[in-house]
Write a structure and sequence with these properties.
Number of helices: 9
Shape: globular
Strand order of the largest sheet: 1-4
Distance between the termini: 38 Å
Oligomer: single chain
Radius of gyration: 18 Å
Number of strands: 4
Length: 209
């Protein structure tokens, strides 16, 4: 929510910087180490929300559009890959935590060596705004924490829904609000259907052994 809705983030939320204490019979969250706060520019926040919804729905043109608006330039496809582990050519709607074999093949065909990948990533990171770097750092840290906790939550689904929630903060006219409501409904139906299918597939795989 701090990234997609509020646009004001603590970019270093690892366990050593978070304290939970009891205060007047209630639990209180205390944030430590205040050196890595940043505030997202409004256009950056909105474009980042649009990018995430496009990544989930695999809208290739919009992925390129909003990646470029965030400063990715010719590395627009790489920004999406870093965020959701899917190359641009993968058009399957949904979410996944790891690269598939077909995705790895596409990446190998696009980037011919690990050195080329690192050089492209470095150039991408130099081209995007500093505030987006903070977002990427926070996202990567949350990914690491979730993995350490045994993938306790479906972070992709959570971020997908908050990206759409972030778009609701825009001030629009009547017809703009109607269009936004319709987009939200389509997005929620698509995401809920995928989550249901993924859950069903996981149960079947477990049952089969």
């Amino acid at each position: 929510e701090q990234i997609y809705v509020n646009g004001f983030i603590h970019a270093d939320p690892h366990p050593g910087n978070i304290l939970i204490r009891k205060e007047s019979d209630a639990l209180q969250l205390v944030l430590l180490d205040h050196g890595l706060y940043t505030e997202l520019e409004e256009d950056v926040r909105i474009n980042y929300c649009h990018l995430w919804t496009s990544l989930i729905l695999r809208k290739q043109n919009d992925i390129i559009k909003y990646s470029e608006l965030l400063g990715a330039g010719k590395y627009a496809d790489l920004l999406g890959l870093i965020l959701v582990f899917r190359p641009l050519q993968n058009t399957d709607i949904g979410l996944q935590a790891n690269l598939s074999q077909s995705d790895l093949k596409i990446i190998r065909e696009t980037y011919h060596s690990p050195t080329e990948v690192m050089e492209s990533v470095n150039e991408l990171l130099q081209s995007i705004p500093r505030s987006v770097l903070f977002v990427l750092k926070t996202t990567n840290l949350l990914r690491s924490i979730n993995r350490t906790m045994g993938a306790a939550v479906d972070r992709f689904s959570i971020m997908a829904r908050y990206s759409m929630k972030g778009l609701w903060t825009q001030k629009l006219g009547f017809w703009g609000r109607i269009a936004r409501s319709w987009s939200y409904l389509k997005f929620e139906i698509t995401l809920s259907f995928y989550v249901w299918i993924a859950s069903l597939w996981g149960k079947l795989t477990f049952a089969i052994g």
